[in-house]
């Protein structure tokens, strides 16, 4: 039997490697590569070893309507699922330990169950009594969710096959083990095998499955990324330590838009939905301060305003600090380079701290202008007009490029009491809805007109 050559796997991203290395060159994580027992290649596994069964093929035409989606009534959850739960779909919910995944899914299961769905919650991490205590604290003790505590994959599949629930929650995929796989629970091989079997079961039997996956920091336990490709929908539950709110974000969805977000607040009695996230993210704003810029963003199908905050201070370091939280640091470096090269505004010798207020994460290129605005405002020690929002993409030439959904951004800004928008010259706006608009051609113009800099 030929020895498998790819016996090393990254537990963070699942990439295969021919030999061990300290750093995974696929995802950049350190100390995440572990040796895995190669998949069995015994007789009968290879192609041609035995004759396969002919799979029945069918046409593309269908007379069936798509299956109805189930709504939980938790709007923030339903939206991130793409407009409710698709029967027989497999959903992965990843997130840091302690962020609130079990809480969210217990609340979700209870909400679906109260609307008549047959919901089963299998906990591999906590004893049933602990889950019951949580249910009591959340005021869900009377919800018709059925609870099991088990980690044996075979037993879980048998249970689900007998019960045939509409939806099953498996908390977490890292605790499951299959006797068919010779590896420890939590290893890449076990996590993949368990996820694969559960996803296959979901499709065959029409049972929607939620898999919980902890994001892991060390290489001992496989992270949720190793099963992302198997499931229909990948959702991450995020939040900053010390902040009350949590963001549910779909990063992949076969049944709806990706990048949709749902916003929750962690309270003593569980996760409360936040229907108007912009108001929450901006609630800490007071007097106009240098270094602050309000970005009118779009998350999925929904406009969300966030505040980009910058602090710029003389550095004593040979290579000054660039500390970026909640924004893409590569993007920030590019904007700093454009400011320096195209506008002649250097940040050399200056430490730069940049973050999004409240722990929100912003990935849109449309945030470029707000990032530049916060940086310039901090550097020039001059506040932007407090009634203004910004959006626009910055190209390497320093030109500003238009972005999608300008009207929705403006509408949300106006709803929250803003009266002015700074945006690219080339941006088409069909109806500004009473907002006063300041058009900017390029970054040099922005620095000059708004800050008198450059
Ligand atoms: N008794 C409690 N009172 C208030 N909040 C609690 C209580 N127990 C847990 N929590 C909150 O719930 C969080 C844990 O959520 P949990 O759903 O178990 O996270 P995960 O499943 O992602 O590890 C804790 O970080 C804490 O904020
Ligand atoms: Mg948990
Ligand atoms: Zn990796």
From TrEMBL:
SUPFAM superfamilies: P-loop containing nucleoside triphosphate hydrolases (SSF52540), Ribosomal protein S5 domain 2-like (SSF54211). The keyword Glycoprotein does not apply. One of its GO terms (cellular component) is cytosol. A motif (RadA KNRFG motif) lies at residues 252-256. Gene3D superfamilies: 3.30.230.10, P-loop containing nucleotide triphosphate hydrolases (3.40.50.300). Coiled coil: none annotated. Residues 66-215 form the RecA family profile domain. The keyword Zinc applies. GO terms for molecular function: ATP binding; ATP-dependent DNA damage sensor activity; damaged DNA binding; hydrolase activity; zinc ion binding. Keywords: ATP-binding, DNA damage, DNA repair, DNA-binding, Hydrolase, Metal-binding, Nucleotide-binding, Stress response, Zinc, Zinc-finger. ATP binds at residues 95-102. Pfam families: AAA_25, ChlI, Zn_ribbon_LapB. One of its GO terms (biological process) is recombinational repair. Residues 351-454 are annotated as: Lon-protease-like. Belongs to the RecA family. RadA subfamily. The middle region has homology to RecA with ATPase motifs including the RadA KNRFG motif, while the C-terminus is homologous to Lon protease. PANTHER family: DNA REPAIR PROTEIN RADA, DNA REPAIR PROTEIN RADA-LIKE PROTEIN. DNA-dependent ATPase involved in processing of recombination intermediates, plays a role in repairing DNA breaks. Stimulates the branch migration of RecA-mediated strand transfer reactions, allowing the 3' invading strand to extend heteroduplex DNA faster. Binds ssDNA in the presence of ADP but not other nucleotides, has ATPase activity that is stimulated by ssDNA and various branched DNA structures, but inhibited by SSB. Does not have RecA's homology-searching function. This is DNA repair protein RadA. It comes from Paracoccus lichenicola. The lineage of its organism: Bacteria, Pseudomonadati, Pseudomonadota, Alphaproteobacteria, Rhodobacterales.
């Amino acid at each position: 039997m030929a020895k498998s050559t790819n016996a090393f796997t990254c537990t963070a991203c699942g990439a295969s490697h021919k030999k061990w290395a300290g750093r995974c060159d696929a995802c950049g994580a350190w100390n995440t590569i572990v040796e895995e027992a190669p998949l069995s290649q015994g007789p009968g596994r290879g192609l041609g070893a035995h004759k396969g069964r002919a799979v029945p093929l069918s046409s593309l035409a269908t007379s069936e309507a798509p299956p109805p989606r189930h709504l939980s009534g938790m709007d923030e959850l339903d939206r991130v699922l793409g407009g409710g739960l698709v029967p027989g779909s497999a959903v992965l919910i990843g997130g840091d330990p302690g962020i609130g995944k079990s809480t969210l899914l217990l609340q979700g299961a209870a909400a679906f169950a109260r609307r008549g769905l047959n919901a089963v919650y299998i906990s591999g991490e906590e004893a049933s009594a602990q889950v019951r205590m949580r249910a009591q604290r959340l005021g869900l003790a009377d919800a018709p969710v059925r609870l099991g505590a088990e980690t044996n994959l075979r037993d879980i599949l048998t249970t689900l096959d007998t019960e045939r629930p509409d939806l099953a929650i498996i908390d977490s995929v890292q605790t499951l083990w299959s006797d068919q796989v010779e590896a420890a629970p939590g290893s890449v091989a076990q996590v993949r095998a368990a996820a694969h079997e559960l996803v296959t079961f979901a499709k065959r039997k029409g049972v929607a499955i939620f898999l919980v996956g902890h994001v892991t920091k060390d290489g001992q336990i496989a992270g949720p990324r190793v099963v992302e490709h198997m499931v229909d929908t990948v959702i991450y539950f995020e939040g900053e330590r010390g902040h009350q709110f949590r963001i549910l974000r779909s990063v992949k969805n076969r049944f709806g838009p990706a990048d949709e977000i749902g916003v929750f607040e962690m309270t003593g009695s569980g996760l409360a939905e936040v229907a108007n996230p912009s108001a929450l993210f901006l609630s800490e704003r007071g007097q106009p301060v240098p270094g602050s810029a309000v970005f009118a963003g779009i998350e999925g199908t929904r406009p969300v305003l966030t505040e980009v905050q910058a602090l710029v201070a003389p550095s004593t370091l040979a290579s000054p600090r660039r500390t970026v939280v909640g924004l893409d640091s590569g993007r920030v470096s590019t904007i700093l380079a454009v400011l320096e090269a195209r506008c002649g505004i250097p940040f050399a010798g200056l430490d730069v701290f940049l973050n999004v207020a409240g722990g929100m994460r912003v990935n849109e290129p449309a945030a470029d202008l707000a990032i530049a605005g916060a940086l310039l405002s901090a550097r020039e020690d001059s506040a932007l007009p407090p009634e203004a929002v910004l959006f626009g993409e910055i190209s390497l030439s320093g030109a500003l490029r238009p972005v999608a959904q300008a009207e929705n951004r403006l509408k949300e800004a106006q709803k929250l009491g803003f009266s002015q928008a700074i945006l690219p010259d080339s941006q088409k706006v069909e109806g500004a809805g009473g907002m006063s608009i300041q058009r900017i051609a390029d970054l040099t113009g922005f620095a000059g007109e708004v800050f008198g800099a450059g």
